[in-house]
Amino acid sequence: MKNRIDSSRQRTPWDNKEDTTIIENFIQDKYKDNYNLKHPKLIDTDEVKVINSITINNCRHCDSDRIKKNGFTKNGVQRYYCYECKRSFSPTTGTIFENHKISITEWVEFLLDIFNYGSTTLTSKVNKNSINTSTYWLNKVFLLLREYQNGIVLKGKVYIDEMFYSVIKCDIEKKNGKKLRGLSRNQYCIGIGYDGTNIIAIVEGFGKTSSDLTKLTFINHIEENSRLIHDDEKAHRKLVKELKLVDESYSSAWLKTKTDKENPLRPINHQCDLIRQFLNTHSGFDRDNLQDYLNLYCFMNSKPRNKLEKVNILLELALNTKVTLKYRDLFETKEKDG
Ligand SMILES: [Zn+2]
After folding, report:
1. Percent of the chain with pLDDT over 90
2. What's the pLDDT at 296?
3. From 67, 100, 112, 283, which residue has the greatest number of CB atoms within 10 Å?
4. CA 259 – CA 73 distance, rounded (Å)
5. In angstroms, what is the span from residue 321 Cα to ligand 1's centroid?
6. 55-69, 82-96, 144-158, 322-336: range with lowest mean pLDDT
7. Mean pLDDT of 253-275
8. Average pLDDT over residues 195-207
9. Is 149 helix (H, G, I), strand (E, B) or coil?
10. Calpha distance 162→152 (Å, rounded)
């Protein structure tokens, strides 16, 4: 599978030609060197060490602890045998690295590109992968980050606001041939919270927020008795009351008279701008993935700041989470939908 996906970027026009010119030969060599650098063979990296360092106490198939070590694969990866289900497995069985369709080395590069705000198109060019491969990897990141925001609780000075993001062009609902105006069903409402350290961004629904939606979005993500800094949106009041928040709200009319610098809501406005920029980098993305992109944004912009530490967190998560996504499944669903 992998060879087929990547073959387009691996090929040169002179692969089957015998009498290549010196220049053709030179270009071909350089290109292939670079390709091989981006796609190292498992045997040439320290990946096996990483894989074999994973602690395995239970069967990757049935979770039984009646397992034993059972030799190595030809690449040197530790194999295990389960007495319960009588199946073999390796430390990567059931993880996104199963069958090694993604090498861990490539994964690290890929993540760093994504964290540097690379789009899938650009990232696949840099890493010499097809766009489908990059989309596939991105969807694996999404799976790993599905639960990520659950653990985030903002505290101290907490800013909240709503931002709106348009549905895809072909989904825009029209009334008598005219686009619906204002905060209609053509706009996703995204609740944003920020405390200077961590950020949360959750799709609330379409159009304006409501007391119940605001409460549902933020109730588990803000510590009681924190200070809430926000605009005078009435829908926020229920949340303030329930969490006994110190209420610091500013009227929209008053805020309009302030410059950006004077605006007390500047930190959250800035986050909203950044999120919009981030989403626009991936313009035309499937809006079914909107929450996934927001999870990724929050992961990128919350603690820890260092990108390598973020790679570390995701790698640990990837190696210890039983989650797989079949390439075929991802693209067959997409084709059906499209
Ligand atoms: Zn088993």
Report:
1. 45
2. 95
3. 67
4. 64
5. 16
6. 322-336
7. 93
8. 95
9. helix
10. 18
Region 186-190: mean pLDDT is 92
CA of 57 relative to ligand 1 center, distance in Å: 11
Which parts of 130-231 fold into alpha helices (H)? 131-145, 211-218
Q: Give one DSSP letter per residue of 287-323, joined into a string.
A: GGGHHHHHHHHHHHHSS---HHHHHHHHHHHHHH---
> Which amino acid does the sequence have at 300?
M
Query: d(Cα 84, Cα 46) in Å, to the nearest integer?
Result: 32
Task: Calculate how far, in angstroms, residue 199's C-alpha sits from the geometric centre of ligand 1.
Answer: 40
CATH node for 153-301: 3.30.420.10
CA of 63 to the centre of ligand 1 (A): 6
Q: How remote is the CA of residue 167 from the centroid of ligand 1, in Å?
A: 45
Kindly indicate the confidence band of residue 6, based on its pLDDT and cuts at 50, 70 and 90: very low
Long-range contacts of 237-243 (CB under 8 A, 24+ apart): 237/211, 238/211, 238/212, 238/214, 239/211, 239/214, 239/215, 242/215, 243/219
Measured in Å, residue 329 CA sits from the centre of ligand 1 at 25
Is pLDDT at 134 greater than 70 in this prediction?
yes
> Ligand 1 centroid vs 55 CA: distance in angstroms?
16
Q: How many CB atoms lie within 10 A of CB 266?
A: 14
> How far away, in angstroms, is 158 Cα from ligand 1 center?
47
CA of 96 to the centre of ligand 1 (A): 19
CB atoms within 10 A of CB 137: 24
- Which residues have CB atoms below 5 A from the ion given as ligand 1? 59, 61-62, 64, 82, 84-85
Give distance in angstroms: CA of 141 to centre of ligand 1: 27
- Is the pLDDT assigned to residue 9 strictly greater than 80? no
φ, ψ of residue 193 to 5 degrees: the values are -130, 145
Q: Where are the domains of the chain?
A: 153-301
- Report whether pLDDT(190) > 50: yes
Are the CB atoms for 271 and 290 separated by under 8 Å?
Answer: no
CA proximity to 115, closest of 298, 288, 243, 254: 298
Q: What are phi and psi of 330, to 5 degrees?
A: -60, -50
